[in-house]
Amino acid sequence: MTKIISLSLAMGLVSTLMANPNIPLDKKALQAKMTKVAGKPSPFNPKENFPKEYFLIPKNLPFALGLVLHHPKSDTLGLSKEQIDTLLKMKKEKQPAILKEAKAIKAMELKLLDLLESNEGNQTKVSEAMAKLVDEIAQKKASLTKAHLQCVIEVQNVLTPEQRKKMEELVQGSHPSKPTVKYVNNPEILAQGVKQAKGLIDGVKPTLMATLKKDPTGVEGTVMCSTKAQEMGANYNSSLPKGSHIRRTAIKYRNPANKPDATDLIVMNDMIADGNLSKAVVVDMGKSFRVYKALPTHKPCLKCHGDANSMPEKMKEIINKKYPHDLATDFKEHELRGVIVSEIEK
Q1: In what order do the strands lie in the sheet with 336-345?
Q2: Which of 117, 142, 172 is the last residue of a domain?
Q3: DSSP structural state of residue 45
Q4: Per-residue pLDDT tens digits of the chain, which is 346 residues long
Q5: Are residues 156 and 14 in the same domain?
Q6: In this structure, are 159 and 194 located in the same domain?
Q7: Does some domain include residue 32?
Q8: Exposed/middle/buried for residue 11 (C-beta within 10 Å: 0-12, 13-18, 19+)
Q9: Count of domains in the chain?
C-alpha cells in the first residue's frame, strides 16, 4: 500500500460507486455532512475539499480507511468479518477527531485572513499576531498529518500482504467509466411494477403498525422486521405472476441480503437529486424491466432508523446482534429510506 500515498485523499471518501464496495457510500449525504462540519466557507475558497485541504500534504495523502471500505471494488479484497469490524471501529474512533482538528485549523486560517483584511493598507509587514498564528497553524497541520499517517499505517497492518497489493492494483488501475442506466417511458410496465410494490407494502404495513401500536418504543417492531419481513417478502413473491419478482434495497441497508447493486445505487442517487420521491421510474435492464418505487422515511420509521444514540438499549442489542454491520440509522423524516424494486421479465 506504499504507492497509495501518491493518490488523492478525496478518492477514498467520495468515489462514485460502480461495483460492490464493502460498505456503500451515499455520496451526496457525505458531501452534505462534510459541508456542515466544515462550517463557514472561505470567501476565497468556496469549493474547498474538506478536510483534505487542512493536511500538510493535501494532494497526496489518502484516506486509507475510505479506500479499503468504500472503494468501488473493495469487496474484491476479500476482507474478513473481523477485518471489517476492526476497520469500522477504527473509522468511528479516528474520523471525528480528524474532522474536529481540520475544522479548528480552518477557523485559524479564517482568523488570519481577518487580521490581514482588518489592517489592509495600514501595515508594512507581517504583524506579531499574524506570525504567531501562522506558526500555530503549521504546528497543527503537522500534528494532524502525523495522526493521519498513523491511521494509514494501522490500516496497512490490518491487511494481509496480498490485500495490500490488490489495493494498490485497484487504486492505480484506470478508473472504470461510470455505469449508466436506461430509463424508459413504459406506462404499462410502470403501472404493473407500482401495483406489485404497493401489494408488498400493503401486506407488511398492517402487521408493522399493529406491532408499533402495541409497543410504541419500536422494540417489538424491530423484532418483527428482523424475523418476519424477509419471510413475508418471500411469500408475497410466490403469489406474483411468473417472471415478476419484488425486493427491497437501500444505500444505507440493514440486512446484507438487501445490498444494492450498481444500478440500484445510481437510481437511488438520481431519486435523491431529483427530490421527488413520489415518482416511480422504469429502467430497461435488457432481458427485463425494473420498476423502482421510493420508500420515504416516515415518522414511525424513525423508531429504529432514526438517531442511533436515542434508541432504546434493547433495540440496539437486537440490531447489533442480528445485523452487526447495520448502516440503516440516523435517517430524518422524508429522506429516502430505500426503494422497492419490481423486476419484470420481458
Answers
A1: 183-184, 281-284, 288-296, 336-345, 244-249
A2: 172
A3: B
A4: 433 333 333 333 333 334 467 888 777 788 888 888 888 887 777 778 888 889 988 877 778 888 888 888 888 898 898 998 899 999 889 889 999 999 999 999 999 988 888 877 788 889 999 999 999 999 999 999 999 899 999 999 999 999 998 888 887 764 555 568 999 999 999 999 999 999 988 887 777 777 777 777 767 767 667 667 777 788 889 899 999 999 999 999 988 888 999 899 999 999 998 889 999 999 999 999 999 999 999 888 888 888 888 888 888 888 888 888 888 889 999 999 999 999 999 9
A5: yes
A6: no
A7: yes
A8: middle
A9: 2
